[in-house]
Amino acid sequence: MKKIIFTDKAPAPIGPYNQAILSGNTLYTSGQVAINPTTGDLVLDTIEVETEQVMQNLKAVLDAANMTFDNVIKTTIFIMNMGDFARINAVYGKYFTEETAPARETVQVSCLPKNVNIEISMIAVK
């Protein structure tokens, strides 16, 4: 059975999807971009600020499912420019320890929704 996870502390979906689905003990988050959930505005000042907003949005979704970044087992990162990888990784890395860091792939793409520079989705397990 699946349970829809929703929080107003992360951006509301802008299409026919949910912020996350909990199936059994596994949480599947939708990709998050750098939308400030309070204002609805994109946060694109720098790639570091943009990545921080994405991670805060994911944190809010994890919180809504009573999970933390320690529960994350896999992430997928889509970026517009692989040249930003080190700067993105520096922000992303603050949310994990080496002991609990998830599996991950990072893929450069040609375009993302709303012309953002980064989108991240996660799978977490209780």
- Summed up, the domain count is 1
Coarse structural class: alpha+beta
What's the level 1 CATH class? Alpha Beta
- Dominant shape: globular
The helix tally amounts to: 2
**Radius of gyration computed on alpha carbons:** 14 Å
- Biggest sheet descriptor: 6 strands, mixed
What string gives the helices and strands in order? EEEHEHEE
CATH superfamily: RutC-like
Helix fraction by DSSP (H/I, runs of at least 4) = 10-25%
Cα(first) to Cα(last) distance is: 16 Å
Describe this entry's structure for a reader.
The radius of gyration is 14 Å and the shape is globular. It contains two helices and six strands. The longest helix is centred in the middle third of the chain and has 18 residues, at 47-64. A six-stranded mixed sheet has the order 1-2-3-6-4-5, with helices on one face. The model has no long low-confidence stretch (mean pLDDT 97). Helix 1 (47-64) runs parallel beside helix 2 (85-92). By secondary structure, the chain is of the alpha+beta class. It has one domain (2-125): RutC-like (60s Ribosomal Protein L30, Chain: A). This is 2-iminobutanoate/2-iminopropanoate deaminase. One of its GO terms (cellular component) is cytosol. Belongs to the RutC family.
